[in-house]
Write a structure and sequence with these properties.
Helices cover 0% and strands 11% of the residues. With 71 residues, the protein is mostly loops. It has a domain of 49 residues. Strands 1-2 form a two-stranded antiparallel sheet.
Protein backbone atom coordinates (compact mmCIF):
# COMPACT_ATOMS: atom_id res chain seq x y z
CA UNK A 1 0.00 0.00 0.00
CA UNK A 2 1.34 3.41 -0.99
CA UNK A 3 0.98 5.69 2.05
CA UNK A 4 1.11 8.75 -0.22
CA UNK A 5 -1.54 7.46 -2.60
CA UNK A 6 -5.30 7.37 -2.28
CA UNK A 7 -7.25 4.71 -0.41
CA UNK A 8 -9.15 2.07 -2.31
CA UNK A 9 -12.43 1.15 -0.63
CA UNK A 10 -13.43 -1.70 -2.96
CA UNK A 11 -11.53 -4.24 -5.01
CA UNK A 12 -12.45 -7.31 -7.06
CA UNK A 13 -10.66 -10.49 -5.99
CA UNK A 14 -10.14 -13.28 -8.54
CA UNK A 15 -9.79 -16.70 -6.90
CA UNK A 16 -10.07 -19.04 -9.85
CA UNK A 17 -11.05 -18.98 -13.52
CA UNK A 18 -14.20 -21.00 -12.83
CA UNK A 19 -15.53 -18.54 -10.23
CA UNK A 20 -16.82 -15.03 -10.72
CA UNK A 21 -14.69 -12.26 -9.16
CA UNK A 22 -15.85 -11.23 -5.69
CA UNK A 23 -16.16 -7.57 -4.70
CA UNK A 24 -14.45 -6.94 -1.37
CA UNK A 25 -15.15 -3.76 0.63
CA UNK A 26 -12.48 -2.37 2.93
CA UNK A 27 -13.22 -0.33 6.03
CA UNK A 28 -10.44 1.79 7.48
CA UNK A 29 -10.45 3.08 11.05
CA UNK A 30 -8.39 5.35 13.29
CA UNK A 31 -6.13 7.02 10.76
CA UNK A 32 -4.16 9.93 12.16
CA UNK A 33 -4.77 11.92 8.96
CA UNK A 34 -7.33 11.08 6.31
CA UNK A 35 -8.92 13.35 3.70
CA UNK A 36 -12.50 12.33 2.94
CA UNK A 37 -12.44 14.56 -0.17
CA UNK A 38 -9.59 12.92 -2.11
CA UNK A 39 -8.78 9.80 -0.04
CA UNK A 40 -5.19 10.77 0.82
CA UNK A 41 -3.44 9.90 4.09
CA UNK A 42 -1.16 12.94 4.01
CA UNK A 43 -3.65 15.64 5.05
CA UNK A 44 -7.17 16.20 6.38
CA UNK A 45 -10.19 17.53 4.50
CA UNK A 46 -9.56 21.11 5.66
CA UNK A 47 -6.09 21.11 4.05
CA UNK A 48 -7.12 19.51 0.74
CA UNK A 49 -6.21 21.22 -2.54
CA UNK A 50 -8.15 18.74 -4.67
CA UNK A 51 -10.85 20.38 -6.77
CA UNK A 52 -13.48 18.60 -8.81
CA UNK A 53 -13.41 19.47 -12.48
CA UNK A 54 -16.87 20.57 -13.74
CA UNK A 55 -16.41 18.67 -17.03
CA UNK A 56 -15.53 15.34 -15.42
CA UNK A 57 -17.43 15.00 -12.14
CA UNK A 58 -16.56 11.99 -10.01
CA UNK A 59 -19.47 9.62 -9.52
CA UNK A 60 -19.89 8.62 -5.91
CA UNK A 61 -20.05 4.93 -5.04
CA UNK A 62 -23.55 4.13 -3.76
CA UNK A 63 -23.79 3.35 -0.07
CA UNK A 64 -23.78 -0.41 0.51
CA UNK A 65 -25.53 -2.15 3.42
CA UNK A 66 -23.39 -2.90 6.49
CA UNK A 67 -21.29 -6.06 6.45
CA UNK A 68 -22.81 -8.79 8.63
CA UNK A 69 -20.17 -10.45 10.77
CA UNK A 70 -20.51 -14.13 11.56
CA UNK A 71 -20.43 -15.13 15.21
Amino acid sequence: MDAYGHLIFTRFIHFDDQWEPILIRFRFEKFRKFCSTCGALTHEKTGCNFRLQPRNPIQAIPQLPPIQQEQ
